Each structure stands twice: as C-alpha cells, then as structure tokens.
C-alpha cells in the first residue's frame, strides 16, 4: 500500500468518525435505544454499494479517493461492533427490543444495499 493511499484512507476515516459522532449528538439520549448506530449503519448500507457500483463514480473518482470514501469514510462511519454491544445491552433490558433492533438493522440494511446497488447500476439517462 502506498503512503498516499494510506493517507487518503486515514482522511476518510477521520471524516467518517466525525460524521458518526455528529449523528450521535443529533440523536442525543434516546432512552437507551441505539438510534444513532442504526442510522449510520443504514446510511452505510445504501452508500457503500452505491459508490462501489455506480459507473460515473468509478469513472470520475481516482481509485485512491474511492478507497478513501469506501474503506475510510464508510468503514469508520458504520460499525458492527457497536451494533453487537448495543444488542447485548438491549437483550438484558428487553429481548423483544433486541430482536427488533437486529431485524430492523439487517432487513432494512439489506434492502438499502439492494437499493444502492440498483440505483447505481441502472442505465444512465444522459449516456
């Protein structure tokens, strides 16, 4: 890996963690339900396949910038470990809430992945 690519990924990571922190501030204390983590993970489920598959993105962005956005920004913006910790915490409070959280995260996340992929790979009107 080149130093340039390493720095690009690091810069993307800085932006992703900053964005994630801002969303956690936006939601504030939500009575224990992890809305901030759910939100960032669902946003990431849409953005990652969109960026990886949209023909204009792949043509117009330098490979280093695309890697910075996908690995750096989205990789640091979303988190599975926090999802797991928050699910375990919810499980101790309410098994129903924990199962609901996992189902929402997975099902809506998967749907947003498909949506991001479909939008990014559909025929472009101006081509």
Name a few traits of the molecule.
127 residues, mainly alpha, 83% helix, globular, membrane, ion channel, transmembrane helix, Fluoride-specific ion channel FluC, sodium
Structure commentary:
The protein has 127 residues and is mainly α. It has one domain. It contains 6 helices and no strands. InterPro entries: FluC. Its main location: membrane. Belongs to the fluoride channel Fluc/FEX (TC 1.A.43) family. Na(+) binds at residues 75, 78.
Summarize the structure.
Na(+) binds at residues 75, 78. The protein has 127 residues and is an all-alpha fold.
Shape: globular
End-to-end separation: 34 Å
What's the alpha carbon Rg, rounded to whole Å? 16 Å
> What is the string of SSEs from the N terminus onward?
HHHHHH
Task: Tell me the layout of helices and strands.
Layout: H1 3-27, H2 35-53, H3 55-60, H4 63-77, H5 80-93, H6 95-121
Helix pairs in contact: 1-2, 1-4, 2-4, 2-6, 5-6
Function: Fluoride-specific ion channel. Important for reducing fluoride concentration in the cell, thus reducing its toxicity.
Pfam families: CRCB
Transmembrane segments: 32-53, 65-85, 97-117
